[in-house]
């Protein structure tokens, strides 16, 4: 039977230096931002459906939908960035 040396949770970070702490903080903030993507996407989808009901003129609809579509692209770019940093 082999024995495995374990480290108590209280001493788990005793060997971490400032770089390790910085990477853990960046990873934690990125993971939280990555988790906020889905609620933000549902808010943007609601904004998109509201833009269809705001106007009766088809010519006025395109700028409204384009603004919301651009927000979706920004959300995707930001989400990809934070997903990369979180891993």
List keywords for this structure.
mainly alpha; 3 helices; rod-shaped; 87 residues
Description:
This protein is mostly helical and about 90 residues long. It has a domain at about 40-85. The chain has helices spanning about 20-35, 35-55, 60-85. Helix 1 (about 20-35) packs antiparallel against helix 3 (about 60-85) and helix 2 (about 35-55) runs antiparallel to helix 3. The longest helix has 29 residues, at about 60-85. It is rod-shaped, with a radius of gyration of 22 Å. The model has no long low-confidence stretch (mean pLDDT about 90). It is found in: Membrane. It is a multi-pass membrane protein. Its main location: membrane.
Strand content: under 5%
The number of strands is: 0
The percent range for helix content is over 70%
Q: Please tell me the overall pLDDT.
A: 89
Computed structural class: mainly alpha
CA-based shape = rod-shaped
Low-confidence stretches: none
Task: Lay out the secondary structure.
Elements: H1 18-35, H2 37-54, H3 58-86
Helix pairs in contact: 1-3, 2-3
